[in-house]
Structure formats: C-alpha cells, structure tokens
Write a structure and sequence with these properties.
The structure is a single chain. The protein is an alpha/beta fold. It folds into three domains: about 180 residues, P-loop containing nucleotide triphosphate hydrolases (Rossmann fold), CATH 3.40.50; about 170 residues, Rossmann fold (3-Layer(aba) Sandwich); about 70 residues, no CATH class. The chain is built from 17 helices and 24 strands. A hairpin with a 6-residue loop joins strand 13 and strand 14. Helix 13 crosses helix 14. The longest helix is centred in the middle third of the chain and has 16 residues.
Length: about 500
C-alpha cells in the first residue's frame, strides 16, 4: 500500500517571547487522512505551535509547508486561504447575533441589499444534519452553553474548504454523547482525506481517536509514537518527565458535622434540590451537559435568583441576594469559565489572589500592599503556582496555574464550603494531580467541598458521595463504594432515553 505524502510539515520551528523560549526547533509532520495528537503539559508549547499554524504568531525560525508548497502565514487570513483552521478551547462567539450568523460570519448569503436570513438558517440546518449535530440556528450567541459555543466554532471551520484542521481541547465542555458525535465527525474528516491535529490532555481520547501522538515538553519535541504501539505510562513519562504513580488516589477522611445544607432549592433551571455536605467531605455532582449542575452551583452562591428553598451554612440560613452574601457566609466558588467569570486576566497574580480578602487587608480603603504580597506569596508557595513573580499577569500563566490562582484566592479567604465547577478543565495531567492533592488537603482541613465534573473518572477519584443530576433534579445518590461510570450514567440517563 502506498503511504500518502505528508500534507503538513513544520520544520525546526522556534519562538521566543521576551527572552523566554516557547518553542525550540519543533518538527512534526502529518499526512492526509491522519489524526495526529499533540500532547504535553501546560506550558509545553502546544498553544504557541497552534498559533503559529493559525497565523496568529510568526515563528522566529523554521518553515511550514502544505502539500509540499512552502507556506508563510502572516495572519489568520493567510492560514484560512491555505485551508488551515484552528478550533480553540475558548470559542470566540459574537454574543448578540444568531448561531447561523456566528457560523457564516463574513459569508452571509444575500438577497438584494439585505442578507437572506431564511436561506442562512436553512444552510446551517443542512450542515448540522450532515454532521449529526443539533443546534438552533436562530439562538443568540449569548445564550449558548460552553458545549454549544464549541460546536459553533467547529461548524465555522467545516463550512470552509479545510485541508488541515486542529482541535484544541475540543471535548472540555462536551457531554459523552456530544464527544461521540465529535469523534464520528473527526473520523469522517479523516476518511475524507483531511489532516487532523488533536490537542488533548485526556489519554483515553488519544487512544480512541488518534493514529499517532507527538509529545512536547519545555518547548521541544520529546518524540512521536504510534498509538497502537504505546500506552498511558509511556506517554505520561514523556510529557512530565517524572513518575505520577499514586498521585491520583484521594484518601477519604472521616467527615464531621453538616456544614452546607441545601433545602428544596428551585430556580428557573433546577427544581426542588435538597442535599447536604459535611465538614471534610467531598461530594461529587455528576450528570450530562444541561443537567443543571452549574446552574445549581450559581444558585447556591447567590449568582442566580431562587424561587424557593434555602441554603444553610453551619446551621444558619443564608439570605442570598448576591455572591457577596455567599462569601460572607463562608462559601467559595470556582466557576467553570475561569477566564470569563473568575479571573482578572490582565491583572497580576497578587491582585487576583487578594481579591476575596481586600476588606481584611485594607485600612481606610487603602490596601496594605506588604500584607497583600505576604498572603499571595504564602498561597503561591503552598499550591506551587509556577509564575516568575507575583506581578506576572495571569493571562500569561498556563491553564493549570490559572486554576491554582483561583484556588489560592479562596484559601486566603478560609471558606467553610468550597464549590469547584470543572476544576481541572483544560489542565494537563501533572497539574491535575497537583489540584487533586490540594482538594484532598482542603478536605483534611475540614472544608466541605462540592466538585462538579464532566469527567467520570475524576468524580470517582475525588468524591466520598456522588449526586447525579438529570433535567434539573437530583436523580439519585451513590456512595463511594457503589459509584461507577455505569451506575452514574444509568442515573444520568434514566429519563432521557
């Protein structure tokens, strides 16, 4: 059988940022009809490499070729013209226009002087049906869930004449059903001869969808393996350069008294929710995308109005008119969308950590900078946040270290209850293990913790008990001993069949 020539070749790509070497002579190649996975810890250089391929950055050295033709991408427009598209982890959505307008932005069909909305919606419905997706073309971008925003980005790429398409952590906000649909799509693209680059931290996905894996560490290629001839242990060792054996097992602690009690809580999205969490206990909140897990968390922290019910902390009912009331009651919250909802991306590590304790470290509304720095340094050291200084802008940190900054903020506040929504979303395997260790330590200190996660292995690793949500209600509860992927999915889908 004749092996097709390489479609994409990136040769000796190097890139520096302000003296920091992001990429060091990175070389890789991918053939038509192949899925090449890119793996590595946060900060390994994957995002920089994709941005160079997308035309968002120019390499300091090295060359790119597409189908044996040299390619120079001075802008994303050049990359698009060459048939290269990148699906980023954080989708770029225009909030106040429809899904159809978001997908066909810049290419709207016209009828005379006006664009043809009916034709536009029909085009998108046909395209969605062709690839097996279900999305309302008329829905506003501002109303889309993270999973739906990801699908808009994917459809944007698919309507173009792509030759190379790269997916950057595409499943981080997708349900298992949506992941299956995405993988069917990727296999179809591969069968159609399109070259697919697939960036993910999730090892099971890599073995399920990729033909080969290229691993980066510290800005350089460590090696490339055929998925059929490697295993989890080898890839993890290549990525992190250290042994992670045993780092993923949480040691349960004997729980104390009930710290958080939720009684008959109802909002526009959840109905009659009741549960409790004890001091030192980790309760996992599982369910399919759209089950109401995040909406429940936002209601508990006062970010979403409740129609009925109450939240009780240490036996005292909390009047939740805003997140400030929840914070005063001792509830901390790390939301799923850390960049949009948790972090001040263009402020420093110091500023982000001290945000929840400004009242405690201020005199006459003036922040005591020395005390602020002492607190920030304490928790940067405790959580091993990798940052050159406390003054580093948070946007320049890796995803795992950004998440640690969010956790550091709440540790500085010393909460009684901590709600973590997708705490390791977009985080590499090494940082994930470190965050698990932090959660374990916080539980040991007596904090009541709620973990919301779409990754069932994560729920099973962390939780003492699992609450499964379906259609805005709690469908059932499982003990640590009774919880399994099968039992959780059975509850999550029992009324959805």
């Amino acid at each position: 059988m004749t092996v097709p020539a390489d479609r994409l070749v990136m040769n000796d790509i190097s890139k520096n940022f302000a003296g920091v070497r992001a990429l060091r002579q990175v070389s890789l190649s991918a053939r038509p009809g192949e899925v090449l996975a890119l793996m590595g810890e946060n900060g390994a250089g994957k995002s920089t490499l994709l941005k160079i391929l997308a035309g968002a950055h120019s390499p300091d050295a090295g060359t790119i070729s597409i189908d044996d033709a040299p390619a120079t991408f001075r802008s994303p427009r050049d990359a698009h013209a060459a048939g290269v598209r990148i699906i980023y982890q954080e989708p770029e959505i225009i909030p106040h226009v429809s899904v159809a307008e978001n997908v066909y932005v810049g290419e709207l069909p016209r009828r005379g002087r006006y664009f043809d909305r009916r034709r536009l919606n029909a085009q998108l419905r046909d395209a969605l049906a062709r690839y097996g997706f279900d999305l309302d073309p008329t829905e506003l971008g501002s109303r889309l869930s993270p999973a739906q925003r990801q699908l808009v980005e994917i459809m944007r790429a698919l309507i173009a004449d792509v030759r190379v398409i790269a997916f950057d952590e595409p499943t981080s906000s997708l349900s298992d059903v949506e992941v299956d649909a995405l993988f069917r799509l990727i296999r179809r693209l591969r069968d159609d001869g399109i070259t697919v680059l697939y960036v993910s931290h999730r090892l099971p996905e890599i073995f399920r969808i990729a033909d080969r894996v290229t691993v980066l560490r510290d800005g350089a290629v460590v090696g490339t393996r055929t998925t059929a001839e490697t295993n989890d242990d080898e890839l993890v060792a290549m990525m992190v350069g250290r042994d992670l054996t045993g780092m993923f097992r949480r040691q349960p602690h004997a729980p104390g008294e009930v710290t958080l009690r939720v009684e008959h809580l109802s909002t526009d999205d959840v109905d009659d929710i009741s549960f409790d969490v004890r001091a030192g206990e980790v309760v996992g909140l599982a369910g399919l995308v759209g089950a109401g897990r995040s909406e429940l968390a936002h209601a508990i922290v006062g970010d979403m109005p409740a129609r009925s019910g109450q939240v009780i902390v240490d036996g005292q009912p909390v009047r939740l008119r805003s997140p400030r009331d929840a914070i005063r009651a001792g509830i901390g919250f790390a939301p799923e969308e850390r960049k949009a909802q948790a972090l001040l991306m263009h402020r420093s590590v110091r500023d982000n950590i001290s945000l929840a304790v400004l009242g405690r470290i201020s005199v006459a509304h003036v922040v005591r900078r020395r005390e602020e720095g002492r607190i920030a340094r304490r928790f940067v050291d405790r959580l091993a946040v990798r940052t050159p200084s406390l003054e580093q802008v948070v946007a320049n940190l890796s995803g795992g270290n950004q998440q640690k900054v969010v956790l550091a903020r709440w540790l500085a506040r010393r909460p009684k209850v901590l709600i973590l929504d997708e705490p390791t979303r977009g985080v590499d395997v090494g940082a994930k293990a470190e965050i698990y260790d932090v959660i374990n330590e916080l539980a040991a200190e007596g904090i009541a913790i709620v973990v919301i996660s779409s990754e069932l292995p994560e729920i099973l690793t962390l939780a003492d008990r699992v609450l499964v949500m379906q259609a805005g209600r709690i469908a059932g509860e499982l003990s640590r001993d009774d919880a399994s992927e099968e039992s959780i999915l059975a509850l999550a889908m029992k009324e959805a069949a």
